[in-house]
Write a structure and sequence with these properties.
Blueprint: E1 9-14, H1 21-31, E2 40-45, H2 51-57, E3 63-67, H3 84-89, E4 94-97, H4 100-106, H5 110-122, E5 126-131, H6 135-139, H7 143-154, H8 160-163, E6 167-170, H9 184-209, E7 211-215, H10 223-227, E8 234-237, H11 244-251
Parallel strand pairs: 1-2, 1-8, 2-3, 3-4, 4-5, 5-6, 6-7, 7-8
This protein binds 1,3-dihydroxyacetonephosphate.
């Protein structure tokens, strides 16, 4: 089935806790050539300390900037936290929300994800909401119910007009950093289920506008088959986004 909807592919690199400012500049320099094609958008999410430097390094390129997380309050006594406004100020247009590492190690829940999406939207940052099941949930046959809960609770209270403008990243936890990518069938099955759910939350047309990215061991040698799936609209890339050659090839998916 061909992609019928007007969705521009999005390839996002989540650098996680990697890269000094000098490393960020070098990496950007070696991927910027690959990032010019009109039919695809490229975004990188460096650590906070490299955002401003990265913002300068991407000037004049087609690369966009994302934060990896934000706090739900606009300001206050929250030591170690960063607000949406601060991310905007540093040059971000996107922000990753509810990454599984945040859920796993830092206690984030569907409710904090919802609050963070709200906070991002307040300052016109585009949230990329991450969802995904653990290995245990998959093996227990609970993948689709878990995904449905994460989407419904994470997006609770948002109107159709809001939901249609969002980006969702499906990242099965068992595929992250393990080298064990979901097969294209496994990924497409979940992406299709998300799309069906979105029909309810954003309407028929709205659901077709939402980009649903796949993440979890995306590499140069599996991006093409993943992107060939009708409901996979891009990728959220971890490890391979730190390797200029690999990430350039991923950006250049065919
Ligand atoms: P890997 O690509 O390293 O598996 O990480 C995926 C991820 O968590 C992106 O957010």
């Amino acid at each position: 089935m061909k992609k019928s909807a007007p969705r521009r592919a999005l390839i996002a690199g989540n650098w996680k806790m990697h890269a000094t400012r000098a490393e960020a500049v070098a990496l950007i320099d070696s991927i910027k050539e690959a990032a010019g094609a009109r039919d695809r958008e490229v975004v990188i999410a460096p650590p906070y300390t490299a955002l401003e430097t990265a913002a300068r390094a991407i000037e004049g390129t087609a690369i966009g900037l994302a934060g990896q997380n934000l706090h739900w309050e606009p300001k206050g006594a929250f030591t170690g936290e960063i607000s949406g406004e601060m991310l905007k100020d540093a040059g971000c247009t996107y922000v990753i929300v509810g990454h599984s590492e945040r859920r796993q190690y830092f206690g984030e829940t569907n409710e904090t994800v919802r609050q963070k999406i709200e906070a991002a939207l307040r300052v016109a940052l585009k949230p990329i909401m991450c969802i995904g099941e653990t290995l245990r949930e998959r093996e227990g046959g609970n993948t689709l119910p878990v995904i449905e809960r994460q989407v419904r609770d994470g997006l609770a209270g948002f109107g159709r007009d809001v939901v249609r403008g969002l980006t969702i990243a499906y990242e099965p936890v068992w595929a992250i950093g393990t080298g064990k990518t979901a097969t294209q069938e496994q990924a497409q099955e979940v992406h299709a289920a998300i799309r069906t759910l979105l029909k309810e939350l954003a309407g028929d047309t709205g659901s077709e506008a939402v980009r649903v990215l796949y993440g979890g061991s995306v590499k140069a040698d599996n991006i093409d088959t993943l992107m060939a799936q009708p409901d996979i609209d891009g990728a959220l890339v971890g490890g391979a986004s730190l390797d200029a050659a690999a990430f350039s090839r991923i950006i250049g998916f065919r």
